[in-house]
Amino acid sequence: MKCPLVSSTWLLNNLSDPDLVIIDASQKENKAKLVSNSENVQIRGARYFDIKHKFSATDSPFPNTLLTPEEFQEKCRELGVNTTSKLVVYDNLGVYRSPRVWWMFKIMGFDNVAVLDGGLPNWISQGNQVESARTQTFQKGDFNAVFDVTKVRDIRFLTKNLSNNNVLVIDARSADRFNGIVPEPRKGLRGGHIPNSINIPFTDALENGKFKTKKQLTELFNNFKIENNLLVFSCGSGITACIVLLAASLVLKNNKALYDGSWTEWAQLNKF
To answer: pTM of the entire structure?
Structure first.
């Protein structure tokens, strides 16, 4: 898809497309303690994308760790995703986990994916149909994962580039967490931030559960010396960082990547 965002109106007008696959990325809990008013319902025909238990490496010591390309490919095929599919991802908080799923498909070499702006709450507010959430099985798809190494950076890269003026780390956590004023939601995890990183809380990119306008997002990023830097996005565990990454994709041409381990990994493995 040409744009990483689609509206509820666009989705409604394209429901009859045989290649359309609607992905539900909702989860019952989140570290931001956001609450959904749309529990146990889904957009009609949506397929549940279980980030926590199926699409993350459950054997990793860090939460929400990306699967290997082979594992991701197999899980997507089980979900009935094909190479010709047109994916629209949403969640029940407006915009929260859906950008993470968008990024996961992008890093696996699949570009025909977009986030539903405003998610399930906006869909419902426009009077569109939903159904009770249900377990489904699908005809196995032929999705093919081609890993794009440019869209992720690891702790070794960040440690080596702490003083590199051409690399800018953007932290999507709240200002209080970034500054270590409040405890981290994960028990025992120290507070603070990666040296030389800047703070753009994911909430600053959103308004009423949707992304701000391109003009507003441009003004948001213009508050910092972005220049032509490689932008590496981080948060607590790689979820909300994708919100700011997607926002940047709407208005910035910089190369962009995610630090998948994010603060949870950095705080445990580094003494900076």
So the answer is: 0.95
Cα separation, 222 vs 216, in Å, equals 10
In which element (H, E) is residue 123 found? helix 119-125
**How many CB atoms lie under 10 A from the CB of residue 132?**
7
Distance of alpha carbon 236 from the chain centroid = 12
Domain containing 265 equals 150-269
Residues annotated as part of the active site: 235
Angle at alpha carbon of residue 147, lines to 141 and 149, rounded to 5°: 165
Q: Are residues 43 and 138 in the same domain?
A: yes
44-69: pLDDT as tens digits: 999 999 998 899 988 888 888 999 99
User: In terms of domains, do 34 and 141 share one?
Assistant: yes
Question: What are the DSSP E strand ranges found in the chain?
Answer: 5-6, 20-24, 41-43, 47-48, 86-90, 113-116, 130-132, 152-153, 167-171, 198-199, 206-207, 210-211, 230-234, 256-259
Return all residues near 252 (Cβ < 8 A) that are at least 6 apart. Answer: 221, 226, 231
Cβ atoms < 10 Å from Cβ of 90: 33
Spatial separation of the C-alpha atoms in residues 182 and 42, rounded to whole Å:
35
Domains: count for the chain: 2
